[in-house]
Amino acid sequence: MQKDELLEFLSQNEIEFEYQGKDALALTKVADLEKATSQEIAFFNDPKRKEQLKSTQAGLVILKAEFSDLTVCNRLIVKNPYYVYALLAQKFNPLPSQKGIHPSAVVDGSVVVPASCYIGPNVVIESGVLLGEGCQISAGCYLGKNVTLGKNCYLGPNVVIMNDCVLGDEVILQAGCVIGGEGFGFAPQAGQWIRIPQIGRVIIGNHVSIGNNTTIDRGTLQDTVIEDDCIIDNLVHIAHNVKIGQGSAIAAQTGFAGSSQVGKQCIFAGQAGVVGHLKISDGVMVMAKAGVTHSLKQPGSYSGFPAIPTGEWQKNTVRAKNLQKMALQIKDLEQSIKELKNQLEEK
Amino acid sequence: MQKDELLEFLSQNEIEFEYQGKDALALTKVADLEKATSQEIAFFNDPKRKEQLKSTQAGLVILKAEFSDLTVCNRLIVKNPYYVYALLAQKFNPLPSQKGIHPSAVVDGSVVVPASCYIGPNVVIESGVLLGEGCQISAGCYLGKNVTLGKNCYLGPNVVIMNDCVLGDEVILQAGCVIGGEGFGFAPQAGQWIRIPQIGRVIIGNHVSIGNNTTIDRGTLQDTVIEDDCIIDNLVHIAHNVKIGQGSAIAAQTGFAGSSQVGKQCIFAGQAGVVGHLKISDGVMVMAKAGVTHSLKQPGSYSGFPAIPTGEWQKNTVRAKNLQKMALQIKDLEQSIKELKNQLEEK
Amino acid sequence: MQKDELLEFLSQNEIEFEYQGKDALALTKVADLEKATSQEIAFFNDPKRKEQLKSTQAGLVILKAEFSDLTVCNRLIVKNPYYVYALLAQKFNPLPSQKGIHPSAVVDGSVVVPASCYIGPNVVIESGVLLGEGCQISAGCYLGKNVTLGKNCYLGPNVVIMNDCVLGDEVILQAGCVIGGEGFGFAPQAGQWIRIPQIGRVIIGNHVSIGNNTTIDRGTLQDTVIEDDCIIDNLVHIAHNVKIGQGSAIAAQTGFAGSSQVGKQCIFAGQAGVVGHLKISDGVMVMAKAGVTHSLKQPGSYSGFPAIPTGEWQKNTVRAKNLQKMALQIKDLEQSIKELKNQLEEK
Fold this sequence. Notes:
Chains A, B, C: Its EC number is 2.3.1.191. Three copies of one chain form a homotrimer. By secondary structure, the first copy, chain A, is α/β, with parallel strands linked by helices. Chain A contains five helices and 37 strands. Chain A has two domains: about 90 residues, 3-Layer(aba) Sandwich (Udp-n-acetylmuramoylalanyl-d-glutamate--2,6- Diaminopimelate Ligase, Chain: A, domain 1), CATH 3.40.1390; about 210 residues, UDP N-Acetylglucosamine Acyltransferase, domain 1. Chains A and B meet through strand 19, strand 20, helix 4 and helix 5 of A and strand 2, helix 3, helix 4 and helix 5 of B.
């Protein structure tokens, strides 16, 4: 990528920027600040890495104005360096865009596969499936009856999408995830569990990304919904009838029990959990391993089990570390009072 | 479904009921109370939804006698509405019952596939496998050597069953689950881990349901056993030599370490854990995120880590929220005693 | 296995031993101490099972010298019975060693498959893959472009290895695990998440074992590294750029957030978690469900959330169980002081 290409790319993406450096650029890929060579693009975001910025050999560093004096390399000064880096990394590392249907794929005769799509080896596509333009379906995937995919979806190997589920445009499903499996719906009767068929769907919006081996169950009667712009990590469990609001991010191994409603722009750190039938407001952040047991009506950060506002949790946690000390203080107090009583009686 | 069909179905299933309503019924499916139309069946179980019951347009509402006055719709009055609803939902939404062997399936020549079975695309069935009548094996499944399936088992796509494992009748394995993988058996020696081949099996009883991407490891020398009527949710881990007793229910992301023995009719909420070599009595309920670190000899509810009876845990949890307050109380007490001492000395 | 074969096997493996028993041995497999017959090998390691040792009918018992008087069976006396048992169990139960390429496999024309390898049904191998001698690739596996496998690797069914990842020799990947999936790398911008392509690899050393449905994400720019001799259980999540040091053991459902560096010979019990960008010293043991939130510079055992040294955690846990009692003690103290004050005033 030469300088004029870079400037055109930034302009196309409506990025405000200032460029400081040489006119001769020949950039071939993105790289880590510490190891980048004169043909590579790095970014600087973390003030703790100032020494690496000073010594970097990168061909271009993307950074904020306040740090631009720390390097003599070519500089691209922007407001959100990480974002601009992401765009350039995507430019240099596009998602696969193969075309054609592998002869080993088993595609029902009723399905129209656009010429812009790729259907990999051993993929199985059942009747009634609708595929948008440019979809990439990797080896071993299964698409059940009447599944709908929007444009430019990418499915990693061995992904399963069960019947009737709907994906928007530019949805990414990493390897091994299961969308629309039957959830945990059973009626107890005389020591047995009677299965409740799950006849809702999973509806996934646009620009959603779902991680490896994650499971999202179909709704019982209505639908499980993942709104636009959500990102979901590996080994996450989302139960039937859950709704995840626009732009929420869910880290690995987090779980949502049935019918929970999560607002927009929420963040869940790893191994968090949410019990069933709760409502979680927009803008909530749930910290690692926290367990939400009541509806959260206010945005903000929550920690612990049961989850409480993180500020309170931190105070309690500090105290909890001192429980041993508190117990000894109480013992001392009891002793002091005993002595006082004795002294009082003596007087 | 017309009224006479409904009555016959209830009679076949030995349901005690009272019907109140019109003779003309034309029911086509089950639906949610709030959205059901005059051709749909809904059920009412949750007193919080009384307003929905009053306004429902359902063609039939299944409910308890005490609520029957709240609606003018056709009513089916039974003792356990959720159970009767489940039976009707199954009637309207049966499991798949395809037949035949897809030409892309790889079935060892030694295996007899009953004509009532369905073997989907790209399924691999190794030598010595025994299949009961009516089994449905979805695309991409793998059945290792000498696996045995009872009657009417349903396997979702990409399920793996390793060699020698045994399933009873009417077992449901959801997509991507792995039955009989090698567990975590290694002998430490000079900074290395020496693999212990796991030569036991997984034995699964009748009417068991296992969730998406769940893993159940084979036994080391003896077997891992899941007894009849158990239901197991997504992303659950069951280690080697574990035994889960009849009718137990295990919610998502729960884990059992090796050789734990779980009694009958136990319930584990999501993200719970059980350490190895414990015995858990019949009728134990373990709450979400709880960690069981000692054998539990009494039925009842347990919470926290280490898990204790839920009643005790709740009291401690309330106190834990007040730790900051307790610390201040102690400080006040220390101050009071100081003052008392001074006053005493003055006298 | 006869006696001379046994002695030769021990000698080949450089085991110091003493044999006490008959010359006529005809051993056919390994078995549990309690159930072993006269043709089976058992081991004794657990002093709690002395009664089983006294009554065992095993054809050979592997045990330490101090217990050799407790049985009259043939005895193999060694320093580490579990290790010697593991070696013999492997001898009797070798990993599969099939050969050939199943006709349904889809192997890119550029790939040289050594005659000693097995490529199972429906396996997909993309261009540029390098396979060591003796690799066993089970049904339904996917190996992306330029993946490298060392010698004698075993992949269970439906394993996914994404492009460019590298495995050493004798690596075991259990069914359904995903190596090299894209991790959770996104830049926030105006309420959306912009994907950061993950262009590092996963590098796995020699003698590593990875469990069923576990996910190990590729590095962002550099690599995710699993060093030699690590063992990793089922449903574990290892995020991008993590490094796990030599010989570490990670139990089921544990998770590591991005860029954490774990030392050598560490042990993580089940459902543990480690937040991102931490350094964990060699020789650390993290107990079940613990959450590591700060770097751990000292070897030793850690528990709780946030994780602290296990000794401290245990003291606090005992106190935490008594919080209710402590609250009552404080109440009593307050009452006592009130009374003292009154008495003092009266004087």
